[in-house]
Amino acid sequence: FYAGIMRTVSYIRNDGPMSFMSEVGKRAKTEAVVIFPEGTRSPEDGLHPFKRGVARVATEYELEIKPVLLQVEPKILTKGRRWYHLPLEKPLYQMNCMPAIKLEDLREDEEQSNLKLSVKLNDHLYNYYREELVDVRR
């Protein structure tokens, strides 16, 4: 059942970091690719540390990142909550497309390695989402 759904949405299998990065990088040149940087569902009260894959792919393939903030009220499907424990009221989803993040805006100089740039990008993304979530909760 799930295999058909995964093919329909062009799911990229994570068979290993190098093959995953390569496939994401190739596809991102011609189509939108959605990656969840936490690697799992968010906890009820914030964010998990971000995985480095998003930043590594972006720096390796020189991709622009277009952050999207997805929210739902009341909260459902958070880490630690069973998928079948649904609220009585209908969930309301909100999606905000944020301004693009360009690598050249984070690059310190032409000699900066992709590894250092990806670490900086990963930290930037984590802080960016954390600040956006705080602003939304106010």
Query: What's the total number of strands?
Result: 2
**Regions with little confidence, pLDDT below 50 for 5+ residues:** none
Number of helices: 5
Spatial order of the strands forming the largest sheet: 1-2
- β content, as a range? 5-15%
Main beta sheet strand tally, sense and closure:
2 strands, antiparallel
- C-alpha Rg (nearest Å): 17 Å
The helicity comes to 25-40%
Structural class given helices, strands, pairing? mainly alpha
Average residue pLDDT: 87
Intertermini distance: 41 Å
Order of helices and strands: HHHEEHH
Gross morphology is globular
What does this structure look like?
The chain is mainly alpha-helical. 40% of the residues lie in helices and 9% in strands. The protein is built from five helices and two strands; from the N terminus they run αααββαα. It has a two-stranded antiparallel sheet. Helix 2 packs across helix 3 and helix 3 packs across helix 5. The relative contact order is 0.16. The model has no long low-confidence stretch (mean pLDDT 87).
Concise summary:
By secondary structure, the chain is mainly alpha-helical. Helix content is 40%, strand content 9%. The protein is globular, with a radius of gyration of 17 Å.
Supply database-style keywords.
138 residues, 40% helix, mainly alpha, two-stranded antiparallel sheet
Topology:
Blueprint: H1 2-8, H2 17-28, H3 53-60, E1 68-73, E2 92-97, H4 103-106, H5 114-137
Antiparallel strand pairs: 1-2
